[in-house]
Backbone:
């Protein structure tokens, strides 16, 4: 695949301008995921932008968990997020939690109340929504908007002391109910939630909202650039309002970029959870999912994912990227780096009738044709071998150069072999093919210079390992899955084919989970995490060329 032209990075253009004008003398970013699910390919873009920007300017990038919604968060997600970031090849300078700032954020809320910039509201969620107005009509003030500072301080303390049930009251910023920007129409900054928190336990029963906690956490950490996706562009005035009202002298600069949208997949946590709970996939790390743990289990190299992010570039405009580009990046990387091996997925027995009975020999084969430094491996050849069932036909079709009666082929790195016959079972199915080999053609070349058009991979019966191979394909058959309520209708019925009793060459018997190989003529494959020496499980990462 030709190298894609890399687009300019407008984020770095902004930073370069700020550095030139003396706005900043250092670069600090952060990656702030909410620990309420597993990261996916869209998060990979944000990770690469946040950490990559810090790397470019010799700055630092912190990891901060936005854990302000305890009812949806879990330590399990915290651990998985850390693992995913490290897998992508990034290191964070410090680990922070928004919950570590709860005392600080509470003091900020009190400061807003005391300055007359926040009030306790008794309106119900439905009433608050109705009072906000519409895109064409301004909102109207809550009847509780003009409470005194003293009353607001008392009510907020009683909220904090747990006197009120969930939803009874909220703390709102007092900004402008007539603002054309909905986010500025007295946004909620604290709500009541009698929920235990995975970090702070039962210390709090009021929790800050994201739009309040996020900018103030950035400012407290001295973040210089808050890089976020485009849906937060309309939140930027509110971001700046909070930072300025609290009085930070060096406010972070928020810069937005377009989200990563990829066809033939869904990244919505709600839809992904639906797939998991209804059994359409085996879990969040199902190799058909575009979660980072799913792609890792499938054998996608982190380097290929980063290459994919680099190729699509950073833009301000939303667009949809073809999933085929991601597969191409994976294919390009593995073609250059994955060691070669032989595997027969649908075995058909071949007997070399003139090969000495009881004899075997080891053939030394290079691990990669373009990288001799990777070394070699030894494969065993003997009288009985296996080839792919599709590599034999009794009556060949036109331009079929594989095994059929009277035809000669090359057995990869071994010998020339000529088909002399075949055996059928009682149902008329071919169960064995008979061949004679040319002992003088060792290494796959004939001394008399004769040519053969077909080269077959094979596995020796004397040194083979049984394996279950999962042939994975795209999870969805349509470009835009989930546009209707019936997500299941968009599923690709052929997204998984399980092949039992496959045979792989004996050199792979000690392969470890995560090891990736190119199986000759088959594609790229990865040893599954559940694989054991007695029960090898192998996942197809990607085929040799796209079938889409």
Residues:
């Amino acid at each position: 695949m030709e190298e894609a032209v890399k687009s300019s990075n407008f984020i770095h253009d902004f930073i370069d301008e700020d550095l030139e004008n003396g706005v900043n003398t250092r670069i600090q970013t952060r990656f702030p995921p909410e620990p309420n699910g597993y990261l996916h390919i869209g998060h990979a873009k944000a990770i690469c932008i946040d950490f990559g920007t810090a790397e470019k300017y010799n700055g630092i990038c912190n990891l901060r968990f936005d854990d302000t919604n305890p009812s949806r968060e879990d330590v399990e997600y915290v651990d998985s997020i850390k693992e995913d970031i490290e897998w992508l090849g990034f290191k964070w300078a410090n680990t922070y939690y928004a919950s570590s700032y709860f005392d600080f954020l509470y003091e900020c809320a009190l400061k807003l109340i005391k300055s007359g910039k926040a009030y306790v509201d008794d309106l119900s969620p439905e009433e608050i929504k109705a009072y906000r107005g519409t895109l064409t009509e301004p909102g109207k003030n809550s009847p509780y908007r003009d409470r005194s500072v003293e009353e607001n301080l008392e009510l907020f303390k009683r909220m904090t002391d747990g006197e009120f049930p969930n939803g009874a009251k909220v703390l709102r910023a007092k900004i402008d109910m007539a603002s054309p920007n909905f986010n500025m129409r007295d946004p909620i900054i604290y709500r009541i939630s009698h929920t235990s928190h995975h970090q702070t336990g039962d210390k709090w029963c009021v929790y800050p909202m994201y739009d309040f906690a996020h900018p103030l956490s950035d400012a407290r950490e001295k973040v210089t650039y808050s890089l976020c996706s485009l849906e937060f562009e309309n939140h930027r005035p509110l971001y700046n309002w909070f930072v300025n009202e609290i009085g930070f002298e060096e406010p972070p600069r928020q810069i937005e970029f377009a989200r990563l949208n990829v066809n033939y997949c869904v990244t919505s946590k709600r839809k992904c959870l639906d797939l998991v709970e209804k059994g359409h996939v085996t879990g969040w790390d199902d190799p058909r999912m575009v979660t980072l743990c799913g792609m890792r289990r499938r054998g996608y190299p982190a380097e290929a994912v980063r290459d994919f992010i680099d190729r699509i570039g950073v833009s301000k405009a939303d667009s949809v990227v073809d999933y085929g580009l991601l597969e191409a990046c994976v294919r390009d990387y593995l073609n250059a780096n994955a060691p070669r091996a032989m595997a027969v997925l649908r075995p058909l027995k071949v007997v070399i009738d003139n090969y000495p009975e009881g004899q075997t020999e080891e053939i030394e084969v290079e691990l990669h044709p373009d990288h001799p430094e990777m070394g070699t491996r030894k494969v065993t050849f003997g009288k009985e071998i296996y080839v792919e069932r599709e590599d034999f036909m009794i009556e060949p079709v036109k331009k079929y150069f594989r095994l059929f009666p009277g035809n000669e082929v090359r057995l990869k790195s071994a010998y020339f072999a000529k088909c002399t016959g075949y055996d059928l079972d009682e149902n008329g199915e071919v169960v064995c093919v008979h061949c004679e080999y040319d002992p003088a053609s060792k290494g796959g070349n004939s001394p008399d210079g004769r040519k053969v058009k077909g080269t077959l991979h094979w596995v020796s019966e004397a040194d083979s390992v049984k394996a279950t191979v999962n042939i994975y394909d795209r999870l969805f058959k349509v470009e835009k899955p989930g546009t209707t309520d019936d997500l299941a209708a968009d599923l690709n019925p052929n997204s998984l084919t399980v092949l039992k009793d496959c045979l792989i060459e004996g050199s792979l018997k000690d392969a470890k989970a995560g090891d990736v190989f190119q199986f000759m003529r088959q594609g790229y494959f990865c040893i599954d995490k559940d694989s054991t020496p007695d029960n090898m499980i192998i996942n197809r990462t990607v085929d040799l060329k796209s079938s889409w």
User: Anything to note?
Assistant: DSSP finds twelve helices and 27 strands in the chain. Confidence is low (pLDDT under 50) at residues 1-6. The two ends are 16 Å apart (CA to CA). Residues 345 and 502 are 5 Å apart (CA to CA).
